[in-house]
Design goal:
The chain contains two helices and no strands. By secondary structure, it is mainly α. The chain has one domain. The chain is about 90% helix and about 0% strand. The model has no long low-confidence stretch (mean pLDDT about 85). The termini are far apart.
Length: about 55
């Protein structure tokens, strides 16, 4: 197997991994944040807002 074929195979496996595993987890996390509006996330956002206004 040539080096070019190995590189394309590696990139294909990486692309499949990103599409199958990374994006749905991010989407589920965002759905959770939007649906349930957890207090820890609101505290995080308020803390981020306070730290940007302090400077």
């Amino acid at each position: 197997m040539g080096k070019t074929k190995r590189i394309f195979l590696s990139l294909g496996i990486l692309l499949v991994d990103v599409v199958i595993f990374y994006l749905p987890l991010t989407a589920f996390f965002l759905i959770y944040i939007l649906m349930f509006n957890p207090p820890w996330f609101r505290d995080f956002l308020n803390h981020m807002d306070d730290s940007t206004n302090a400077g």
